[in-house]
């Protein structure tokens, strides 16, 4: 595949609680934004007009929540048709989804881990290819945080790489997920990131998490990014060059100074590694 990142610079996940403050900010340190399509389909009226102001102001990407790429149920092509129309209507530059499943005769309301097996690689890769064919564009898949690995026959990194290669799709690198999983499952997050196919990374997520215990971290997107996660982001830039990077914050929204401070921190690291040549 010929790889080119769909956006550049620093991104922020658009949440409805942020729309008012951001609309009143003349020059926020934001180059692109991301939304979950399911949270905005269907949409009209005042909210639709407000959303349109953002899509006309910033480039957008989208991050799906409920396609259930690894689930046993058939792919929801009715949902995909709505997503395809949403992407086209708002000129959204990339659609990404989680490498997980969230349905089985109903919605499970969580992102469940796919068993790390060869059979699962083939199954999920085939479904990713179907989605790409239907949308008529590449998609990115995100390696998720998980808290158990039932039926695993291979490592997480081997599973992720095998799916991405067989599906011929892109990768959404989530630095916080790599950190959380490394603590919860006892591996080196630097080695994990280094082993990823950098030429396939479409963009990067970074976020905060909750410390349940010394050896149990929970991916929440509800707190500030911690230093070890910032260090991992720099490692990713060292490995692959500066990459478009988006801050996820879902609740406990801080004031503008703190929120924009994290965005400027991303920009500072990007500037530091801009001279490195990207793979691909």
What's the short story on this structure?
The protein is built from nine helices and twelve strands. The protein is of the alpha/beta class and about 280 residues long. Strand 2, helix 2 (about 45-55) and strand 3 (about 60-65) form a beta-alpha-beta unit.
In terms of topology, how is this protein built?
Elements: E1 10-13, H1 16-23, E2 32-35, H2 45-57, E3 60-63, H3 77-89, E4 95-98, E5 101-103, E6 107-112, H4 118-135, E7 139-142, H5 156-167, E8 170-174, H6 175-185, H7 189-194, E9 201-207, E10 209-213, E11 216-219, H8 227-240, E12 245-248, H9 256-273
Parallel strand pairs: 1-2, 1-12, 2-3, 3-4, 4-7, 7-8, 8-9, 9-12
Antiparallel strand pairs: 5-6, 10-11
Helix pairs in contact: 4-5
**Structural class designation:** alpha/beta
Write the element-wise H/E pattern from the N-terminal end onward.
Answer: EHEHEHEEEHEHEHHEEEHEH
Q: Tell me roughly what share of residues is in helical segments.
A: 40-55%
Largest sheet: 8 strands, parallel, barrel
Q: Give average pLDDT, whole number.
A: 88
Strand order of the largest sheet: 1-2-3-4-7-8-9-12
């Amino acid at each position: 595949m010929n790889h080119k990142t769909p956006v550049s610079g620093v991104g922020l996940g658009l949440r409805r609680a942020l729309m008012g403050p951001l609309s009143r900010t003349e020059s926020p340190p934001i180059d692109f934004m991301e939304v979950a399509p399911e949270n905005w389909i269907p949409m009209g009226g005042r909210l639709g007009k407000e959303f349109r102001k953002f899509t006309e102001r910033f480039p957008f990407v989208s991050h799906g929540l409920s396609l259930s790429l690894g689930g046993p149920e058939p792919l929801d092509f009715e949902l995909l048709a709505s997503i395809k129309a949403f992407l086209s209507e708002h000129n959204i530059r990339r659609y990404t989804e989680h490498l997980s499943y969230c349905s089985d005769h109903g919605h499970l309301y969580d992102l469940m881990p796919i068993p790390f097996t060869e059979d699962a690689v083939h199954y999920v890769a085939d479904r990713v290819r179907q989605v790409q064919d239907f949308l008529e564009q590449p998609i990115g898949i995100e390696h998720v945080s998980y808290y158990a690995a039932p039926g695993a026959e291979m490592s997480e990194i081997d599973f992720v790489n095998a799916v991405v290669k067989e599906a011929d799709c892109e990768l959404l690198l989530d630095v916080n997920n790599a950190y959380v999983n490394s603590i919860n499952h006892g591996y080196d997050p630097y080695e994990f990131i280094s082993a990823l196919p950098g030429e396939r990374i479409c963009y990067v997520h970074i976020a905060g998490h909750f410390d349940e215990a010394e050896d149990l971290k929970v991916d929440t997107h509800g707190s500030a990014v911690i230093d070890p996660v910032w260090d991992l982001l720099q490692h990713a830039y060292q490995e692959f060059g500066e990459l478009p990077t988006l801050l996820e914050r879902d609740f406990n929204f801080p004031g503008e100074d703190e929120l924009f401070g994290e965005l400027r921190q991303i920009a500072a690291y990007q500037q530091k590694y801009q001279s490195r040549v990207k793979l691909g």
